[in-house]
Design goal:
Blueprint: E1 3-8, H1 13-21, E2 28-34, H2 44-47, H3 65-68, E3 72-73, E4 85-88, H4 92-103, E5 107-110, H5 135-143, E6 148-151, H6 155-171, E7 173-182, H7 194-197, H8 208-219, E8 222-224, E9 227-229, E10 234-241, E11 248-256, H9 262-275, E12 289-291, H10 300-303, E13 312-319, E14 326-333, H11 341-353
Parallel strand pairs: 1-2, 1-4, 2-3, 4-5, 5-6, 7-10, 12-13
Antiparallel strand pairs: 7-11, 8-9, 11-14, 13-14
Helix pairs in contact: 1-11, 6-8, 6-9
Length: 357
């Protein structure tokens, strides 16, 4: 029998990605959806249609049939007794209270930052730090909850942490310097104006760099005595917004403790592909990592559909002459797929496999 799930914040950009990612899912069935008071009481198709009859569907493909006629509820109308899991696509400002309300009784998987930096809350990337999921039991005990909150990282952190993990494990990562070229969609529907981004690069994204530094160390840390000990890595980053619709590209320099070169890096990523923990899960890609030796890759238009948006692509891997030991590379990660709702669904699959759901 499928687990019954609800999507809250279902009419927004991330909520719509959840709708698509859960369409015909073999393990999860969407039985309840919720949004703001403005949308409540309407059928989903009507809730995303404006007064001019324009349907604001921002995800590729058609709106799944299962959701069109489903009634949108308010947060208070959600019936927790008939649910196994909540997917939260609520904006971070409102998420704290809403996710707390539901986590008292149910597991909550969230794309918001509301709980990311709490001591008893892991920031999970399925396939990278699965062992930190055990902290969810500590969280339940600490807060006297029946459920828990498991947030995803910031979408810029996702690709960086995914590519650093194999290097850290095998060669020891000491220092990381990253510059991001982030897609427009990462700012949400109204986050970036057309006039501001056209023929332009925005060299600053508020609060982004602090999130990446903090989250990367936590994700790559170790769970010890009921707490996460941050990885001993110094991270410096510059986050920019570029005129690309979907997909974040990042230029990364890594200083390692042991000697490394591009061939060794390729072998390391190939080995991780063969033993990645999420292999075979419904939302997992065939290849977790794609490694290119073509110097013109990765490119957003060419990489964003690889693995259904769940593969992290690595290219331009070179020895870095600034360090005694180190490499530089460029990565591509889909901010709306692996870095958001579809990544949250993969996380739910991983936690279900661990009997956490």
């Amino acid at each position: 029998m499928k687990k019954k799930v609800a999507i809250i914040g279902v009419t927004g950009a991330v909520g719509q990605e959840f709708v698509q990612s859960l369409n015909d899912h073999p393990w999860f069935e969407v039985t309840q959806i919720a949004a703001s008071e403005r949308s409540a009481g309407k059928k989903y198709i009507d809730a995303i249609r404006d007064d001019n009859g324009i349907v604001a569907w921002d995800v590729g493909g058609e709106i799944p049939d299962y959701i069109k006629e489903m009634s949108v509820l308010t947060i208070d109308e959600i019936n927790i007794a008939e649910l196994d899991l909540i997917f939260s696509a609520v904006e971070s400002q409102a998420a704290r209270d809403i996710e707390t309300k539901f986590a008292k009784d149910l597991p909550v998987i969230s794309t918001s930052s509301a709980y990311r930096y709490e001591e008893d809350v892991p920031i999970l990337i399925p396939g990278i730090n699965d062992e930190q999921a055990e902290l969810l039991e500590v969280q339940k005990k600490n807060r006297n909850w029946k459920g828990w909150v498991a947030p995803l990282p910031n979408c810029t952190t996702t690709g960086l942490a995914i590519t650093l993990k194999p290097l850290l494990d095998k060669y020891g990562a000491k220092k990381v310097l990253m510059t991001s070229m982030q897609a427009i969609s990462g700012g949400g529907k109204t986050g970036v104006s057309a006039m501001g981004i056209t023929d332009n690069i925005l060299p600053y994204i508020p609060k982004e760099e602090g999130k990446v530094r903090k989250e990367t160390r936590k994700i790559l840390g170790k769970l010890k005595d009921g707490k996460i000990e941050d990885a001993d890595i110094r991270v410096s980053c510059t986050c920019t917004r570029v005129p690309v619709i979907d997909g974040h590209t990042e230029s990364v320099f890594v200083e390692t403790e042991k000697k490394i070169d591009p061939a060794l890096a390729k072998d390391t990523y190939d080995a991780y592909n063969k033993e990645i923990s999420v292999a075979g899960l419904p939302s997992a890609p065939e290849y977790y990592y794609a490694f290119h030796e073509d110097p013109t890759r990765p490119q957003p238009r060419m990489e964003r559909e690889v693995g259904g948006g769940m593969t992290t692509t690595i290219g331009r891997v070179e020895k870095e002459e600034l360090f005694d030991n180190g490499i530089k590379y460029i990565l591509f990660s889909h901010n709306k797929k692996m870095g958001s709702a579809k990544g949250a669904v993969l996380l739910a699959e991983m936690l279900h496999k661990k009997n956490k759901i």
